[in-house]
Amino acid sequence: MWIETLIFYFFAAVTVGSALAMITVRNPVHAALLLVLTFFSSAFIWMLLEAEFLAITLVLVYVGAVMVLFLFVVMMLDINLAVLREGFVRFLPVGAALALGLFTMIWYAFDRARLDMIGAPTPKPADYSNTRALGQVLYTDYVFAFEAAAVILLVAIIAAISLTLRRRKGTKYQNPSEQIRVRKAERLKVIKMEAEKR
Amino acid sequence: MTELLSPYLNWLPAELSWLVITLISIVIILVPLFIIVAYYTYAERKVIGYMQIRIGPNRVGWKGLLQPFADMFKLMFKEIIVPSNANTYLFLVAPVLAFAPAMAAWAVVPFGEGVVFSNIDAGLLYILAMTSLGVYGVIIAGWASNSKYALLGAMRSAAQIVAYEIAMGFALVGVLMASGSLNLSAIVEAQQGGVWNWFIVPLLPLFFVYFIAGVAETNRAPFDVAEGESEIVAGFHVEYSGMAFSVFFLAEYANMILISLLTALMFLGGWLSPVPDLIGDGPFWLVLKTGFFMLLFLWFRATFPRYRYDQIMRLGWKVLLPVTIVWLLVEGVAVYFRIGPWFA
Known about the structure:
The complex is a heterodimer of chains A (198) and B (344). Chain A contains ten helices and no strands. Chain A has helices at 2-24, 28-48, 52-76, 81-85, 88-109, 112-118, 130-138, 143-164, 176-181, 184-187. Chain B is mostly helical and 344 residues long. Helix content of chain B is 63%, strand content 0%. Chain B has twelve helices and no strands. In chain B, helix 7 runs parallel beside helix 12 (309-336), helix 9 (204-217) packs antiparallel against helix 10 and helix 10 packs across helix 11 (283-303). Chain A binds chain B through residues 3, 29, 33, 36, 52-53, 56-57, 59-60, 63-65, 68-69, 71-72, 75-76, 129-131, 174, 176, and chain B through 15, 90, 120-122, 125-126, 128-129, 132-133, 135-136, 139-140, 143, 151, 154-155, 158-159, 161-162, 165-166, 182, 310-311, 314.
């Protein structure tokens, strides 16, 4: 068991360290990459909790898709670092209040007495499928919450598309179905003519 | 795989012998993989050569068979040049980030009945997660090089891989619905009973979507816009030289073999025989099927011109994705009514 403890402390240290570095580094691309590292190492901690489905999904969705798009945007934007660092003092009270609130919540959630009451999770037998168990609960007990979340996401997608959808005049975009429908006779004319004499 | 080795190592302490067995298994999988990658590059040059009525490499060794090693030694002794304004650390880490997931994905791939390094329950998800990580090598390489062409290649690659990953994931959902398991060995077992029971029969559209998305995910022709040597020089790896450059190629070819192998496992019954009454099952079937898809990769490169960037996006989002969604609905109905030998 000491190996598992060692692995836990290693990844916990990496998670906390990279999360701290993420909010302190100046370069936004470095910050995004450190966030990727944070996600990745927290996936390992979930794996130690025998939540392999959630751990792999975290890597698949957040690291493999969301952060790629995030990096895409951060790399494309020409961010002025000086402007970003402005207003630190102005936003300090709000930030401090948020941090304090969050910290109090964590403090209550991880109250020692309550943690002892729940106790350590019992290891499941080897043939126990985390994926199957999760699916069964998600599509029976929590099906309405699940569907509501899906609808909210759909609304967000439609909103994002409608915000950016605008047609500029004069752009020469192509219509693939029109291109495919073109026949040889419309574009090509074979003419018979005599060879010109010099 | 562990059971085969453990009798020889029981004189070691339990935890140490476990470590040694794990390391030996990794070597047993990766060394043949590197050799196959080396000869895959040779096969690529030969096959495309003959397709274009040329001979291809024929100077080093008999029929040019030592060419991969000559290339390897040349690359090893070349200098790794770091551009003056590049981010040195990220520049050198990028090839590693491309290479590591390409190797890690092989951990859950079964090569025969019970011949698998790690027979984990969520193997399919793990593979999908690992292949989706490979894009970081490309993006970071493009950004850290501090070069316009490299950044353009990285941006193209990021958009392309995110688009095709979704189609690929949906195609795998179809396999998951048909087999009822995320474990790759169980997926192969579910296709037992001859060619008619393979998943390619009920899932033909998903098979095409998966393989096309696989070609796009590995940045191979006709989807190689991230490289695009005629438009953006060499894309994301334009600034790389020597071993740092070849590590990218090692990862790319390992991923091509992985996609071929996975297609064979998930749609063509892996090591199962198409005619079990005549010829028995065996690993040679897997080699044969994988080899066919590996040949297809080369054939595509010799045949198709490169897609335009907007056409790639259109194909991914407007063609492949709707096809998978429609076919998942069809499959849902088939599973509900328990149609055929596949969903019984």
